[in-house]
Specification:
CATH architecture: 3-Layer(aba) Sandwich
CATH superfamily: NADH Oxidase
Bound molecules: flavin mononucleotide
Strand order of the largest sheet: 1-2-4-3
CATH topology: NADH Oxidase
Strand content: 5-15%
Shape: globular
Mean pLDDT: 95
Largest sheet: 4 strands, antiparallel
Distance between the termini: 31 Å
CATH class: Alpha Beta
Helix content: 40-55%
Number of helices: 8
Order of helices and strands: HHEHHHEHEHEH
Number of domains: 1
Length: 221
């Protein structure tokens, strides 16, 4: 699989088989991803990869926190006011996801149930929780994102599927405490990792993109 093929094949998978993910595969990928670029080569990313019983224990803690009404979000996933075209793209994304699942606009219960699947990592047997020192700025958050995409493409090449999950920011404090991540770090996101369930309807989703002219201009060429 070359890079173009990995970019084209990668998509967010939201239903996984229970097949465990071997540590040596994940470790090799993360070892390769160390060579992602970052401003000043500061490499601001950190991660904890969790599977098996420790993952189940963590998910139980998060579920208990949610049931107790604990809201421990550490950063806003989106600006308070998100105008078009960005809001329109978000709406389109929701329409594509719920459309694939056959969930109508009015069915808030089913939509919430799908959202809540975030906090079981979509049943992935492995979740990588990414964190970054709290004082880092937007440039270092961008570095983390570049590294995350490197990881996702290498996973694709290895036959593993992923779903980046900003939703974990909502359980950020619970996850940090449970994993022993110091409070001078922010839980940036999770990455659900595993083998895609080929029969799951949700995995049929193919998201659209804005045309190139909407986001890029060329000058002098
Ligand atoms: C940083 C980041 C956070 C995301 N958070 C979530 C999330 O919490 N839950 C979810 O279902 N998808 C999440 N996604 C997946 C996006 O919805 C998905 O990338 C987008 O709709 C494009 O679809 P594709 O990944 O299948 O190409 C996230 C993606 C990124 C890059």
């Amino acid at each position: 699989m070359n890079v173009s093929e990995a970019v084209a094949a990668r998509r967010s998978v939201r239903a996984f088989l229970p097949t465990p993910v071997a540590r040596n595969i994940v470790e090799k990928i993360l070892d390769q991803a160390r060579f992602s670029p970052s401003g000043g080569n500061v490499q601001p990313w950190n991660a904890v990869v969790v599977a098996g019983e420790p993952l189940q224990q963590l998910l139980r803690k998060v579920a208990d926190g949610i049931a107790a009404g604990r809201t421990d979000s550490e950063y806003a996933s989106y600006p308070d006011a998100l105008p078009d075209p960005w809001m329109a793209r978000r709406r389109q994304n929701a329409a594509e996801l719920y459309g694939t699942l056959g969930i109508g606009r009015e069915n808030r219960e089913a939509r919430h149930a799908q959202t809540a699947r975030n906090w079981i990592g979509f049943d992935a047997p492995c979740i990588m929780f990414c964190h970054i020192p709290r004082f880092m700025g937007v440039a270092q958050w961008a570095d983390l994102g570049i590294w995350l995409q490197t990881v996702m493409l290498l996973m694709e090449e290895a036959g593993l599927s992923t779903c980046a999950q900003g939703a974990w920011s909502h359980g950020g404090v619970t996850v940090r405490e449970a994993l022993g991540i110091a409070d001078d770090h922010v839980l940036a996101c999770g990455l659900a990792i595993g083998y895609a369930d080929p029969d799951a309807i949700v995995n049929r989703l193919r998201t659209s993109r804005a045309p190139l002219e909407e986001t890029v201009r060329f000058l002098g060429m």
